[in-house]
Design brief:
about 70 residues; mainly alpha; 5 helices
């Protein structure tokens, strides 16, 4: 999972969510959006949305963290 965490720039909380969802590093890396795939969300948002849909837990996120991650991914 470390390889996926590093390539997708995920924090520890998002990695735990991905593990709970049963995602492996290969599936995370495969879902990194390319510049021509503007419809794809960044991996950390994709994981958070799936987690929230499946478990219905509210996730604490700060806007600063989300903006910083978006800037780093593009």
């Amino acid at each position: 999972m470390e390889r996926g965490q590093k390539k997708c720039r995920l924090n520890a909380e998002t990695v735990q969510m991905a593990k709970k969802l049963g995602l492996n590093p290969k599936s995370l890396i495969r879902n990194i959006p390319n510049k021509s795939q503007s419809w794809k969300k960044p991996v950390y948002l994709w994981i958070r949305e799936m987690y929230q849909e499946r478990y219905g837990d509210s996730i604490k996120t700060s806007e600063k963290t989300d903006k910083k991650n978006i800037e780093n991914n593009f």
